[in-house]
From TrEMBL:
This is 4Fe-4S ferredoxin. It comes from Geosporobacter ferrireducens. Pfam families: Fer4_6 (PF12837). It comes from the Bacteria. Residues 5-34, 35-64 form the 4Fe-4S ferredoxin-type domain. The lineage of its organism: Bacteria, Bacillati, Bacillota, Clostridia, Peptostreptococcales.
Amino acid sequence: MTVRKIVYIDEEKCNGCGLCVPSCAEGAIKIIDGKAKLIADNLCDGLGACLGDCPKDAILIIERDAAEFDEEAVKDHLEKENKPKLQHTHVNHGHSHGHGGCPGSKLRSFNQEQKTAVTEISQGDIEIKIKSQLTQWPVQLMLVPPTAPYFQDADLLVTADCVPFAYPNYHLELLKGKKVVIGCPKLDDVALYAEKLTQIIKMNNIKSVTVAFMEVPCCTGIVRAVEKAVADAGNNVSIKRVRIGIEGEATKL
């Protein structure tokens, strides 16, 4: 037994929908008596590929005493269950698993230097080519697992999802060099945002947090979520606040 990261399922939140089951490539989760259950510690790698598919946010990654992850045990288990063999996809220095859940929630990391897609901007005789500064996927805060390897030692950008539409220099001024999560504090649960951000900050040695939000009053909810997350994580992380006007102006607070 050793202290390590492992899935925890809150049965009070779980509604037994089963969306997490196909997302677990190791087959470590089953629906038993109407609730999702982790059937064996050694089948769980602790990466949290199942997190983004839970509509009730009933799945967390915690640290506790648990048996080591055992790929041989996983292989035997999958054979007995007649499920596809485990496949690995490497992301940075960690790895994620291919799985049967939504392809849009599969972890991906991009090499910025190898990007070929560019946007060309012409002004007189001057032509400027701009590359996207996005280096990871997914970006939705409710989809990313806190253990995504691209968060480790990162500068984090938390963005209200209207900001990239309103601010014309979003990629070069705000996103460049950062890992990003986005969300809408008006449409989603800000308390869940704060909880998820706390996990990300606490588990990944986040170096700094920038929160970009719109000038409309409801958008300050994402700022409050960031401030609570930093306080709850107990890390001495600096917060930069950037307010974006509806007409595109930026104000650093």
